Give the backbone structure.
Amino acid sequence: MIYMDNGATSYPKPPEVIEKMIDVITGYCANPGRAGHYMASKTAHEIYKSRIALARLFNIGDPRQLVFTKNCTEAINLALKGILKEGDHVIATSMEHNSVIRPLRELERKGISTTFVKCAEDGSLEPAKVVEAIRTGRSTGNTKLIVMTAASNVTGTKMPVEEVGRIAVRNGILFMVDGAQGAGHMDLDVRKNHIDILAAPGHKGLLGPQGTGFLYVRSGIDVDTLTEGGTGNRSCEEKQPRDFPEGYEAGTVNAPGIIALGTAANVINKIGIEAVEEHERRLTEKLQRGLEEISGVCLYGPENTYRKTAVVAINIEGMDCEKAAAMLNDKYGIAVRAGFHCSCMAHRTIGTEETGCIRICPGFYTSEKEIDEVIRAVREIAEGR
Ligand SMILES: Cc1ncc(COP(=O)(O)O)c(C=O)c1O
């Protein structure tokens, strides 16, 4: 199969990641932090090494501020529900994924107000619009948080993370980034970009296993827990400890996944995030230029591949996107995603709210030959062959 669904989860995984998972499960995997014996200590130590590897990739000063979660959705929920309180106002964009929109809609029922800043038709965001949305003033100055995706999962459009980070700092507002489509694809240095809170999946661009993700919260930010239970520390206290990271990782963690995620982060650390980004940009450029030449194919998002990640959204004139995706699968063995991509607002923004679109996502291991195959298949479908 030609796998072009890396926006949903990456495939294949680096061989080192697979080897590490086998090594952990067969070699020593005990319950970290729950006992002092060799196997439990070794598992805990390896998990700590994963925190360090990820902290290095995102320039996080204290690895203990990084909490492991089962995916990016859980990390986003932990942050939004743990930080926002009744009366707070939060700013987001119209290109957010449902994993940001839905928790915010739920929080609206608890007295939190929201503003979704409208992005342009190519998904790009004008930072001045964020400034306009900030509620200032003595009685109404309640904007507590700006939350924004690093890049759109529908069009790949990169968001102006650094500029919005500076706006947040200037206005004394917390800045949170949904790194689902950015982590492992572009530099998300938390200090350079003034990111206070970063949520990311381990299983997409970071090339780790499914069932992994993390939340980074800058030290000093008060976060309520989402799940209470055993943490391996302060066992005689009945109240949930608020210690980072243990207090936020109640229950037995996904040790093999987390340890293998650390290995994946080190694979990227070794290659260098800029090199990964440029490699994926070249693949995207080839794909985009090839598709542009096909009559009847409509592309969405920025034309300039420096302004986007490896996500190419298209429609084929006169053909339902789900049908085209099924043809790609059945006739050509090409895996893409079609439909609305858990992002209703993004489709309203780019004008595909009635049709949805086909999303083609090459990944780090995609070859140029595979890109050629995809272009050929789309051409044949568009020409009705
Ligand atoms: C922009 C964005 N945010 C959040 C998520 C949720 O990530 P996960 O599936 O790891 O929960 C996704 C998943 O596709 C995404 O694209």
Residues 2-11+273-382 form a domain with the Aspartate Aminotransferase, domain 1 fold (CATH 3.90.1150.10). DSSP finds eleven helices and 13 strands in the chain.
